[in-house]
């Protein structure tokens, strides 16, 4: 594959000249806080794409060891009642690792999401290429008022 980096200073866009579409997994997580060491995953959503075509999805709530605070419930909409019968992280992660495989991982603020996945898995995601859409939006759309996912999506016409 011939490629040009999307993050170089000339703002060139990566060009995929292979005939086969690239597979990647878009991931989003909800957590009980900001630290992958002290806080827990409470929701994991992932969609597998081949090019622009959605080919599979993975979505689950995750039962944490501690109750979710009112602050987190207000931020995420996820209540302790919703999590009562959810699987625990030890049951979820092997399935998610298999789902992701060696595909490219795409996430908004990818370091955050991947650090939680990494901290809860025996698998190293270091061999997966990771694309951070926050970094892309800051580089490609520097005049946006902020780089929140909703702001970027609205700007590029995705609802």
UniProtKB/TrEMBL annotation:
Residue ranges spanning the membrane: these are none
Query: SMART domains annotated for this entry?
Result: EXOIII (SM00479)
Q: Which UniProt keywords apply?
A: Exonuclease, Hydrolase, Nuclease
For this entry, list what GO says about its biological process.
DNA replication
Q: List, for all copies, the residue spans of the domain called Exonuclease.
A: 23-159
Question: Which Gene3D superfamilies does the record associate with it?
Answer: Ribonuclease H-like superfamily/Ribonuclease H
Query: What's an example of a GO molecular-function annotation for this chain?
Result: 3'-5' exonuclease activity
One Pfam family name is: RNase_T
Q: What InterPro entries does the record point to? A: DnaQ (IPR006054), Ribonucl_H (IPR013520), RNaseH-like_sf (IPR012337), RNaseH_sf (IPR036397)
Q: What is this protein called?
A: DNA polymerase III, epsilon subunit
């Amino acid at each position: 594959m011939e490629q040009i980096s999307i993050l170089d200073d000339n703002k060139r866009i990566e060009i995929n000249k292979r005939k086969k579409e690239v597979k990647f997994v878009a991931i989003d997580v909800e957590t009980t806080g900001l630290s992958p060491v002290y806080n827990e995953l409470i929701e994991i959503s992932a969609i597998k794409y081949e090019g622009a075509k959605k080919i599979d999805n993975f979505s689950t709530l995750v039962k944490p060891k501690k109750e979710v605070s009112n602050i987190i419930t207000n931020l995420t909409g996820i209540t302790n009642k919703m999590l009562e019968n959810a699987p625990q992280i030890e049951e979820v992660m092997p399935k998610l690792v298999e789902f992701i495989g060696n595909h490219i991982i795409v996430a908004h603020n990818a370091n955050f999401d991947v650090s939680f996945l990494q901290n809860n898995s025996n698998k190293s995601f270091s061999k997966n290429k990771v694309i951070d859409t926050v970094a892309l939006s800051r580089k490609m759309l520097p005049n946006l008022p902020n780089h929140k996912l909703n702001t970027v999506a609205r700007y590029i016409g995705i609802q």
